[in-house]
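re: ur question from earlier - yeah i can do the single chain one, its not a big deal. heres the input i used so u can compare w yours
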Amino acid sequence: MKKLKINSKRAKNAEILLWICAGLYVISLISNLMEFFLLSEVQKGVYITKEQFQADTMRQVIVSLLQFVALIISAFTFILWFRRAYFNQEVKFEYMYSKNVWTGISFLIPLYNLFKPFQLMKELHQNIEEYFVKNGLGETNHFFRKRIFLWWFMWIFLNSAQYVSNIILLKSLFPERLMKISISFTLIDLFFIILCYLTIKMIRNYNQLELLILENSDNVENKTDKYGDLLDSHF
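and the output i got, formated as C-alpha cells:
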C-alpha cells in the first residue's frame, strides 16, 4: 500500500529558488534601467566610450546567464514539489484525472505544457478544498484556486513576451528602438518579480493545507521524529 509522503522540504526548496529568481529579476530590472539611461545619453549625442558599451553588454550577459541557470533549477525544484503534491492526492483520493508520472512530463512536452500543468494545478486545489469542507476542517483560502488561470496565463504570456523581445533585440540597431526594448524588459522583470512572489505564496499556502491532511492521516511515511517535527522522505 502506498503511503503519503511529507512534501515540506520540496516546498521549501522551491520557495528558496523562487526567491533567488525574484532577486535576479530585481538585478535585471536595475541593469535594464542602467542600459536605458546609457542609450538615452547616446540619443542626446553624448559621447560614450567603447569600454562603456562593452561593460554594459558584459553586465547584461552575466545577469541573463545567471537568470537562465536559476530558472532551470527553480523549474526543477517546482516540478519535484508539484509531483509529490500530486502523488499524495493520488494516494489520498485514489481517483485522479491524470497519472502521477504525467505531472513532471506535462511541463516538458511542447504545446501540451501550455495547458496540462494548469489543469493539474486546478485539480490539486479543488480536491484539497473539497476535502476540507467534507471533513469539517474549515474553509480554505479560495484566492489561488480562483486565480490559477490568471497565474498560469501570466507565466505563459511573460515568457512569450520575453522571447519576442529577445528576437526584436537581435534585429535592433538604433538607440530609439533599443530604448523601447530596455523598457519592455524592465516591465517584464517587474511582473516576473510579482509572479515569483505569488508562486511562493501559492506553494506555501498549499503546503500548509497538505500538512494538515497529513497530520490527520495514518498512512504517512516517516511522519514524525521524537521532537514531533514532520520529516521529508526519500525521492
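The chain has one domain: 9-216. not sure if urs matches, ping me
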